[in-house]
Design a protein that fits this description.
Number of helices of chain A: 4
Strand content of chain A: under 5%
Helix content of chain B: 40-55%
Number of strands of chain B: 7
Order of helices and strands of chain A: HHHH
Distance between the termini of chain B: 39 Å
Distance between the termini of chain A: 32 Å
Largest interface: A-B, 22 and 24 residues
Oligomer: heterodimer
Largest sheet of chain A: none
CATH topology of the largest domain in chain B: Rossmann fold
Largest sheet of chain B: 4 strands, parallel
CATH architecture of chain A: Orthogonal Bundle
Number of helices of chain B: 13
Radius of gyration of chain B: 20 Å
Radius of gyration of chain A: 12 Å
Strand order of the largest sheet of chain B: 3-2-1-7
CATH architecture of the largest domain in chain B: 3-Layer(aba) Sandwich
Shape of chain A: globular
Chain lengths: ~90, ~325
């Protein structure tokens, strides 16, 4: 299932005040200042409440949550039971 | 630009002269007041600031206020008194517990924490902490509430945004209470309040709006923490303060500044921040600091995020003027 539209709507409504014109699927939330590092917790609450998933501490990484594309892919993996924690530290 | 391990070195004598001239001018010409009040926390920044104030206007025109509350580390007051006595200034210790409690009772704060960690109760201590290893691994800045039970056991809970905001709000009452006492003293005595925020804190937003950010002058806000330590050596700050691990001393369970806010060890932090501010390339920075490119990139992104998110606390109130 494609969760991207729902996530896109949440981001636009809560962080962009309805103006989502500049938000592409690969736009980095942090780099574009759309969400700061603590604001990402608001997204976490939304994802956990909406999809019934539990986001573990070691999954709170940009690779999983720092763009619409990354978030949608992460949610899909969580719902399908695919491991998503960061691999060995670089 | 040239980036190396000497970029943070300062000429302490010249810097002291520059800062003291600034303080003197602010007191005598800009504000036209009788002296300087400094909140002495027992930490390095306030120790350096009060030392500079004495050099600027003389010890008879400097007043130190030591402002602990019931959860402050007792060592903080001890060190603050040592520094004040070493400088020969007038100082006073004021317990601000009742001030803090009058805004939101400690009991209300405790009830809130108990809802998050039911084991929390009398004899427990708490703090909130970030993942402290940003150079080692990538992660967002999420806060974890830590409660130490009387038997030493540690229980933890990751905070959601609402919980984080509530706990931060409780903590900031302490910091803003200090501002009230500093201004009560300064206004009564026709003095100015000298802040103690350093550049590292200023740029990244590690201060409280109208708390420790509510001051008349910020005479060391241009100095990285590393440089504050250089001045501390030059000014002969009390050695216990120089050796002490920097801490916000806001929570009943001790925590370092690195664990609470910066997430990067101090021996690397200011060099990385300098590099980011001066747009040094990731490659050059990683080479000089012997870090991976990924680690430097994570640091730079964190700085950008913190700087952007805290822009409003460096600005005066927005208005239509």
């Amino acid at each position: 299932m494609n969760h991207l539209p729902e996530i896109h709507k949440f981001m636009v409504d809560n962080f962009l005040f309805g103006d989502g014109e500049q938000l592409r699927d690969d736009t980095s939330f942090l780099e574009e200042g759309i969400v700061d590092s603590t604001g990402i917790l608001e997204l976490v609450t939304f994802l956990e409440d909406t999809y019934g998933i539990t986001i573990e501490d070691d999954e709170l990484i940009p690779e999983n949550l720092d763009s619409l594309k990354n978030v949608a892919a992460y949610v899909e993996k969580k719902l399908n039971g695919v491991p998503v924690a960061e691999e060995e530290a670089r | 630009m040239q980036f190396n391990l000497d970029v943070l070195k300062i000429n302490s004598a010249e810097e002291t002269k520059r800062v003291t001239q600034f303080v003197t001018e602010q007191v005598a010409k800009v504000f036209r007041r009788k002296g300087v009040v400094v909140g002495i926390s027992g930490g390095i920044d306030s120790a350096v600031m009060v030392s500079l104030a004495v050099q600027a206007v003389g010890k008879d025109k400097v007043v130190g206020l030591i402002l602990p509350e019931r959860e402050s580390n007792p060592v903080s007051s001890q060190y603050a008194i040592m520094q004040a006595e070493a400088l020969g200034i007038e100082f006073r210790e004021i317990d601000i517990t009742s001030t803090v409690d009058s805004v939101v009772p400690y009991s209300k704060r405790d009830e809130f924490i108990k809802k998050l960690i039911p084991s929390y109760g009398p004899g427990c201590k708490y703090n909130i902490t970030l993942p402290a290893d940003l150079l080692d691994r990538d992660s967002f800045s999420f806060y974890v509430l830590q409660v130490e039970l009387p038997d030493g056991t540690l229980e933890k809970k990751r905070l959601n945004l609402e919980e984080f905001r509530a706990i931060t709000s409780f903590a900031n009452i302490k910091i803003r209470s200090r501002m009230i006492h500093l201004y009560a003293e300064a206004e009564r005595r026709n003095m100015i309040v000298a802040g103690t925020t350093n550049r590292t804190e200023y740029i990244l937003g590690d201060f409280c709006k109208y708390g420790d950010g509510g001051t008349d002058i910020e005479a060391i806000a241009h100095l990285y923490k590393n440089q504050v330590y250089q001045l501390a050596d030059y000014l002969a700050v009390v050695s216990e303060i120089i050796d002490r691990v920097p801490s916000p001393d806001t929570f009943s369970l001790p925590i370092s500044d690195q664990e609470f806010f910066f997430r990067i060890p101090f021996d690397k932090l200011d060099f990385l921040l300098y590099a980011w501010e001066h747009q040094v390339s990731i490659e050059q920075t990683s080479k000089v600091l012997e870090l991976s490119d990924d680690a430097v990139e994570r640091a730079f992104k964190d700085f950008a995020s913190k700087n952007h998110a805290t822009a409003h606390i460096r600005e005066p109130a927005y208005s239509l003027n």
